[in-house]
């Protein structure tokens, strides 16, 4: 498969004293969001040491016994394995994950009934996770602010929509899968948030749809990957693109990644920032509920097309 290099954007430009450099950096972010729906960022302000520490603690967490992960109440009891709703192999995700609300990461009770027996591991992980989540939230706010201002709106208006407490971290592990090179680590999908920031290791596997064909994303450990979600596509009236993507399992190597999802509260109403709108208004809760029904009924998400006018 063709391997692509995503647009690479140096975020130092946003902090430049030169107005032209700031404008050029912001324009690059908006252009990539429209043309690709994906881009990479470097000099993003998140300490590389913190990223390495988060990956190390994540690896230790996934090495816990399966029973502890499933029934120990770890990370708000958010452990997931595979795809319980799958009815055929093409609906199966060969992966395990913790999908954690940011509102919970600083709470001791988020770390399970076995907190006493696993105190050293979980206390260390809690400290790192709180710091990492705060850094990702700040970066997400910066990037969303650029995208919002490009559409003629103020950052303040958008900050009222997306509170840190309504966002999520997803810790992913994709085990080696020697049975088939066609097994999905994560089935094809679009993200149901405003935007996603992804930190991944050196093992490839991420692919996205570009010009009606799948292309593989070349791993870059020094960069974070950013992609537009469904809500930003609807809010921008299709100016920004939420692009279908997937992860393919590796036959010999396991893969780790950490995703930050910028989400509103479930009660938040999503409407287009421009008229005439291409989508009817809906709440995030309504959107999530309809997606769950679609997956249950068809085995896959339909998403935004269901809300087009």
UniProtKB/TrEMBL annotation:
What's the protein name? Answer: gibberellin 2beta-dioxygenase
To which species is this protein native?
A: Linum tenue
Uppermost EC category: oxidoreductase
| InterPro entries for this protein | DIOX_N (IPR026992), IPNS-like_FE2OG_OXY (IPR044861), IPNS-like_sf (IPR027443), Iron_ascorbate_oxido_reductase (IPR050231), Oxoglu/Fe-dep_dioxygenase_dom (IPR005123)
Identify the residues that the record assigns to the Fe2OG dioxygenase domain, covering every copy. 163-264
* Listed GO biological process terms: gibberellin metabolic process
The UniProt entry's sequence similarity note says: Belongs to the iron/ascorbate-dependent oxidoreductase family. GA2OX subfamily.
Catalytic activity, EC: 1.14.11.13
Which lineage do the record's taxonomy fields give for this organism?
Eukaryota, Viridiplantae, Streptophyta, Embryophyta, Tracheophyta
Query: Can you state which reaction this protein catalyses?
Result: gibberellin A1 + 2-oxoglutarate + O2 = gibberellin A8 + succinate + CO2
Tell me one GO molecular function of this protein.
metal ion binding
- A matching Pfam family: 2OG-FeII_Oxy
- Asked if Hydrolase is a keyword of the record, the answer is no
Q: Which UniProt keywords apply?
A: Dioxygenase, Iron, Metal-binding, Oxidoreductase
């Amino acid at each position: 498969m063709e391997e692509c290099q995503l647009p690479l954007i140096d975020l130092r430009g946003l902090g430049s004293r030169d107005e032209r450099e700031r404008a050029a950096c912001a324009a690059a972010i908006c252009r990539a969001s429209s043309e690709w729906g994906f881009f990479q960022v470097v000099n993003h302000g998140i300490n590389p040491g913190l990223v390495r520490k988060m990956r190390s603690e994540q690896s230790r967490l996934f090495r816990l016994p399966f029973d502890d992960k499933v029934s120990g109440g770890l990370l708000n009891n958010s452990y997931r394995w595979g795809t319980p709703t799958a009815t055929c192999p093409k609906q199966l995700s060969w992966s395990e994950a913790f999908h954690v609300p940011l509102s919970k990461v600083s709470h001791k009770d988020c770390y399970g009934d076995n907190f006493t027996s696993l105190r050293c591991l979980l206390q260390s992980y809690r400290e790192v996770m709180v710091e990492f989540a705060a850094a990702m939230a700040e970066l997400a706010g910066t990037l969303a602010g650029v995208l919002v201002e490009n559409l003629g709106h103020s950052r303040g208006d958008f900050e009222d929509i997306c509170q840190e407490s309504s966002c999520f971290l997803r810790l992913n592990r994709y085990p080696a899968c020697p049975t088939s090179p066609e097994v999905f680590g994560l089935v094809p999908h679009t993200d149901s948030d405003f935007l996603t920031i992804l930190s991944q290791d050196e093992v490839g596997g991420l692919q996205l749809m570009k010009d009606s064909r799948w292309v593989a994303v070349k791993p870059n450990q020094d960069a974070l990957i950013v992609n537009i979600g469904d809500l930003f596509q609807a809010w921008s009236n299709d100016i920004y693109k939420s692009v279908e993507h997937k992860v393919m399992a590796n036959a010999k190597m396991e893969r780790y990644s950490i995703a930050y999802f910028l989400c509103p509260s479930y009660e938040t109403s999503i409407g287009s920032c421009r008229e005439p709108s291409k989508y009817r208004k809906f709440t995030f809760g309504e959107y999530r509920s309809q997606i769950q029904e679609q997956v249950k009924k068809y085995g896959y998400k339909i998403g935004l097309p269901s809300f087009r006018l």
